Amino acid sequence: MSDQTPSPQSPLYLVDGSGYIFRAFHALPPLNRPDGTPVNAVYGFCSMLLKLIEDLKAERLAVIFDAGRLSFRNEIYPDYKAHRPEPPEELVPQFPLIRDATRAFALPCIELPGYEADDLIASYAKAAREAGQEVVIVSADKDLMQLIQDGVSLMDPMKAKKIGLEEVMAKFGVAPDKVVDVQALAGDSTDNVPGVPGIGVKTAAQLIGEYGDLDTLLARAGEIKQPKRRQTLIDNADKARVSRELVRLRDDVELPDPLDSLHVGQMSAEVVLSFLEQQGFTSLVAKLRPHLGASKPAHGGSSSSAAAAAAEDMRAAVRDYELIQDEPALAHWIEMATEAGIVGFDTETTSLDAHRAVLVGFSLAVAPGRACYVPLRHVAPRKARQGALDLGAAGEAGADEGAPEQIPVDRAITLLRPLLEAPGVLKVGQNIKYDMIVMAREGIEIAPIDDTMVMSYALDGTRHGHGMDELAQIHLGVTPISYDEVTGKGRDRIGFDEVPLDRARDYAAEDADVTLNLHRLLKPRLGPEGVRALYERTDRALVPVLARMERRGIRIDRDMLGKASREFADGMAALETRIHELAGESFNVGSPKQLGEILFDKLSLPGGKKGKTGAYATGADILQKLAADGHELPAKVLDWRQLAKLKNTYADALAEAVNPETGRIHTSFALTVTTTGRLSSNDPNLQNIPVRTEEGRRIRRAFVPEAGHVLMSADYSQIELRLLADIANIQALRQAFREGIDIHALTASQVFGVPVQGMDPITRRRAKAINFGIIYGISAFGLAQQLDIPQSEAKRYIEAYFERYPGIRDYMERAKADARAHGFVTTIFGRKCWTPDIAAKNPALRAFAERAAINAPLQGSAADIVRLAMVALDEALEASPLGARMLLQVHDEILLEVPEAEVEETAALVKRVMEDVVSRPVPYVVEVGTGLDWDAAH
């Protein structure tokens, strides 16, 4: 377990990580860690790694994984592995944990998009043999038997059995160098390799033994005596050749990590013991601790002591921030980050809009206090303004004669790409989705990632904010340099590309340093606090999905928006004329002060209340009450405001938001803002477009697909009502949902005692109002207003509802009690939804918090289901040959752009994936619609 230089004679162990995961999962009984996450495969994997390192005295070792389900073979044969089932649900959360385990054991963790683990193993084996090293492939996969030769052997890790020439002959009937030819003929149903129909392994071995190789066999197929076999080979010669390309392992893949870097590193007691403790592997902890010189659990075994240690490290570390201005220095930092297996990463740009921002520089951090800044597009300083800040000329670095020395952008990107795309190096960012979009525009796809902002949200919800400065102050006790300190404020603000390099270095490097320290503090909390699965399977997994959605954007018909804007303006003008007639004078309808004076001073309408400024309150609630009492002027003002919002906020603003480079709108999705886990959309906000009015739907009609495509809307039907039946365990409602019964008609029948058949629509509408109102803790007063009935009648309806469904009242009381006891309620996936005013003395605040406690588990669980669905749907679409891609997510709806020719197949896949994403007693049904605009699709 040392980091000493391996002896030249030590074998190189190449571990088939992906293959072993499945074997460990099926070989070991179910095992869950304290938070319920399954970890049997993780335990088997960790045990195997320790055995290899200790029992076999392994010095050189690398663990190699599949980067994804798709590889270059799918380009050769699109149906390759198409029939493979999805991995078991209990195994999915263990995939990232096994990679974490590999890194915790200080071992190379290697994967490469576009290639399978077997290809990397073949390439490393070839390179090692050429370097005179012995190779042991740790796997029992038959596909790897083709690699066996002098100096290259297989070892079955489960049986500790060596696989050599004898075992290959027994399996395939030929030597290893002919295995590919036999597989090409026999095919492989597991991987959907076609082979030649009717030819099995035994027959294939006989044919290859007789003719020597596949090419000779196919060339001389006409000589075969058996007529059926002869014709089959002639007819399927191309299938055999394609199959050979599918089963033959590539041994010429460019190695992601250098061969000489594949060795067992020095384990950190803090890292490995903390990881094992989080999984609940007490036996492995006890076994390892003496060898690591650790007498107690890492950081005392608690998240609080880990936090204290991380904070102390941050405060005690000497700030060793470096400015990188030449390629050798950058290469050195990249080497350090690669060796560490984890790097804090941050970008500096010219804009908060990631889709228009220009990359100015980036920073890397590898240890507390150890970080650097790499400027790329800083410009020459100009004369100081106000004597405080240097101002730079606009343009690319190097365009002006006095521009600071910097690495050429294309060279820096070329050097950086392998690090940011290396599967074995974890990239840690704060709101890394922004950095992923910025770097994607430079041609780099960052992966794998951790995000301290998202991690903090999974841990603490909206208990506090998740900006880096706030997290640094809360957890590390430090106050980072502010953006204003380096760029100035107001009219004196300069772009970051104009900031002098020494100040830019200190600011940018500190960002990466703080981020890496936050990661060291927050990640150990995930397991003990029961949110590791929520973070890894849902929130973190969603980051790259959203980044891709934001980059795609959505097309807008600007002409349609322009026409709508003009018509909204005409409507506003007509309304203003009528409002002035009703008021008896002209005034500014958009002025709350002037409107209040007209309503309450001139017209003497009831309900006028002045605020601290002396002006009357004229909010929507006040105008709605006046309108409900029959006053026309406030009703017309509400109509005017609606049109003004549609015109200014949507018709005009959306047209301006179109990106000139792409011709599409690119909204930004925030993962860490809402109490319940719902995503929010901003710049522009596409989630609040009114859909209940004809004017509002006109805005949605301006969202259109590319030519040859349609928009597809996939919407969870009545998801919160289904969750209420699910969580509150209301058997009648559960059964109704399972049987597809009209839930509102059923409620009306149960509560009002009327038959479903021939039910009065008004009665059903009342039941619907109660069903949805209950979710939000509606009062008798609120229901009375909504249904326009006496409050006493509304009260009777609610009482009758609870008498028929007592489990719902029990759920509501339980939710409020949980909120009072803990300060939060949780979703079915463990997300904490905080209710800070649950014990407020103010009755109105307390009542609002109680309603939130009732609704949050429902809305929050719905939000979590949608998040899971987006991750699953993204994976399913990427793995399929379909051209559909997700564009937007609004509440319970996912909007996609789909080729016209693939609508039916895509709809089936979308519905299946979304409905199967969670298994609960109540079915979560998805309704799919399509159209040539968003409104038509929905």
From TrEMBL:
It is an enzyme of class 2 (transferase). Its EC number is 2.7.7.7. It comes from the Bacteria. Residues 10-265 form the 5'-3' exonuclease domain. Residues 321-527 form the 3'-5' exonuclease domain. It catalyses: DNA(n) + a 2'-deoxyribonucleoside 5'-triphosphate = DNA(n+1) + diphosphate. One of its GO terms (biological process) is DNA-templated DNA replication. One of its GO terms (molecular function) is 5'-3' exonuclease activity. The keyword Cell membrane does not apply. The keyword Cell cycle does not apply. Residues 696-902 form the DNA-directed DNA polymerase family A palm domain. Keywords: DNA damage, DNA repair, DNA replication, DNA-binding, DNA-directed DNA polymerase, Exonuclease, Hydrolase, Nuclease, Nucleotidyltransferase, Transferase. Single-chain monomer with multiple functions. Belongs to the DNA polymerase type-A family. In addition to polymerase activity, this DNA polymerase exhibits 3'-5' and 5'-3' exonuclease activity. This is DNA polymerase I. The gene is polA.
